[in-house]
Structure to design on (39 residues):
């Protein structure tokens, strides 16, 4: 390793619909973000 780390943006997704959470999580993760989820 060269000692450099790339930071990722972190986003918290809160929704009561598992389908919406899955959709948003997949999209945001695909955009390079770290996704945290709350139901």
């Amino acid at each position: 390793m060269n000692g450099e780390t790339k930071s990722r943006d972190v986003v918290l997704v809160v929704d009561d619909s598992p389908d919406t959470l899955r959709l948003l999580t997949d999209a945001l993760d695909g955009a390079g973000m770290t996704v945290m989820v709350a139901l």
